[in-house]
Amino acid sequence: MLAVGIVAEVFGPHGEGLPGFDFALCTDRPGPVPTDVGVPLMVGHGLDRLAAADLVIALPWAGFRTPPGPAVLDALSVAHASGSLVAAHCVGTFALAAAGLLDGRRATTHWRFAGLLAHHHPDVIVDPDALYIDEGRITTGAGAAAGFDLCLHLLRREYGAAMANAVARDMVLPSHRDGGQAQYLTSPVPEDCRDERLAEVLAWAREQLHEPLPVAELARRAVMSKRSFARRFAAATGTTPHAWLRNLRLSSAEELLETTDLPIEEIAHRVGYGSAAVLREQFVRRRGVPPRSYRRSFSNAP
């Protein structure tokens, strides 16, 4: 039920000004479907609904150790062959693997079952650490709440950062976590006063993106050595200060490209890059397109 709720929350109805999608749940046997919380879910659509779908998401199910029936596997394969985007998170990834859609591709699943996925599907390149992996028309995500990250990534990729950020705000969620971020932290997020200072420093950094923000300055503001700051940062966020800042700068640049008509040189300076050329280099490397092409695809500016 968590997985159903995640997908329905992202692609279901939102407030005014936010996107609406034609959302439907499908199954090979329409009718009441048992769930892990003991409340049956009434699913009215069969697999034929997948033929017209732009996006098909295979949800986790309790019997994932046994492959779905041939009708489900055929429907997934036909949807992909017909041009649909196909995605799965948690153990839903096992359905895509059973359909042969992940052979030769990188994929992820809940870290607890990554070894099982690799064992049963040796042709799949399993990454047990990633939050989600985008292979173009096939995307897989990690377990539980990482389904939100997968869905928001797809929304961001297809509709742009401003739209994904607006939906995330509507759900009171972080708008973006990089797919390469660790699925889980090796230690719990600490609660002592030093980490309160860390949170304050991160909030300050978000407002100072136009500045260089070297790690030494962040550590100084947190009253820590650089080594202690980097260690505690990784424990609290699952990533490095450099990676966190880079993603923050690029996400801010995306939103400015979409929602303003500011020159790219000005956007570069606002998000902390020395020139438009540096922003372009980072944008192409991390987003796959130059800033001008991104603006043409997603701009809402007048």
Walkthrough of the structure:
This protein has 302 residues and is α/β, with parallel strands linked by helices. It is built from 13 helices and eight strands. It has helices spanning 2-11, 70-81, 93-98, 114-120, 146-159, 161-170, 193-206, 215-221, 226-237, 241-259, 264-270, 276-287, 291-298; strands at residues 31-33, 41-43, 55-58, 85-89, 106-107, 125-126, 132-134, 138-141. It has a four-stranded mixed β-sheet with strand order 3-4-8-7. α11 (264-270) packs across α12.
From N to C, what is the helix and strand string? HEEEHEHEHEEEHHHHHHHHH
Give the amount of beta strand, in percent.
5-15%
Helix content: 40-55%
Distance between the termini: 42 Å
Strands in their spatial order, largest beta sheet: 3-4-8-7
Biggest sheet layout: 4 strands, mixed
Class from secondary-structure proportions: alpha/beta
The low-confidence parts are 184-194
Q: Which term fits the overall shape?
A: globular
Taking all Cα atoms into account, the compactness measure Rg is: 21 Å
Mean pLDDT: 88
Count of extended strands:
8
Counted by DSSP, the helix tally is 13
